Amino acid sequence: MGVTVFTDEVTGPIPAARIFKAILDSHNLLPKLIPDKIKSIEVQGNGGPGSIKQINFAEDAPFKFAKHKFDVLDEENFMCKYTLIEGGIIGDKIEKVVETVKFEDCPNGGSICKITSEFHTVGDFQPKEEDVKIGKEMALKTSKVVEAYLLKNLNAYA
Fold first, then answer.
1. So what's the pLDDT on residue 129?
2. Spans of the chain below 50 pLDDT
3. Which residues does the UniProt record annotate as the domain Bet v I/Major latex protein (predicted)?
4. Taking a C-beta distance cutoff of 8 angstroms, is the pair 84, 97 a contact?
């Protein structure tokens, strides 16, 4: 088993505390905002460490579902760490994917999202940047939809 790490940073117009609150409520928010992509999100547990979130994708998605286990939830520092344990890209070549997501405020009033993705692979498989392109593009599009919602609805997650 090997581990391949990818990092990324994305800036946005929403302050860290507000976007983090929206992310924590993604199980309610995302099926409403993008029902053509996400049918539902089921939560097992209280939403904190040890909880499981299963994202059930729309019929035309490349995957039927993705199941994440929350490992760390630090609401004071706007950071969470979770592991993709089932569905999605998990299979013959990838055992699990550990994601660490941290939001930090920017001087302009927005925030920067720092993401670390650890791909735990089977055998000597080495994922490349282009192998994870679909997931990154989907995450970026989703974040832009959430940002647009928050900019339009100023009291949401304030």
1. 80
2. none
3. 1-153
4. yes
Tell me which amino acid residue 33 is. L
Q: Which residues of 128-139 are buried (b: 16+ CB within 10 A; e: fewer)?
A: eeebbeebeeeb
The number of beta carbons lying within 10 Å of the beta carbon of residue 88 is 21
Do the beta carbons of residue 31 and residue 43 sit within 8 Å? no
Q: Are 38 and 141 in contact (CB under 8 A)?
A: no
Structure tokens at 76: 């004071």
How many CA atoms lie within 13 Å of 113's alpha carbon, on the beta-carbon side? 23
Q: How far apart are CA 124 and CA 113, in angstroms?
A: 30
How big is the CA angle at 63 (ends 103 and 113), to the nearest 5 degrees?
10
Q: What is the pLDDT of residue 107?
A: 94
How many distinct helices (H) and strands (E) make up the chain? 3, 7
Length of the chain: 158
| C-alpha pair distances (Å), 61 with each of 25, 39, 93 | 22, 10, 20
User: For residue 70, which of 82, 88, 80 has the smallest C-alpha distance?
Assistant: 82
| Strand partners for 42 | 54
Q: What secondary structure letter does DSSP report for 8? A: E
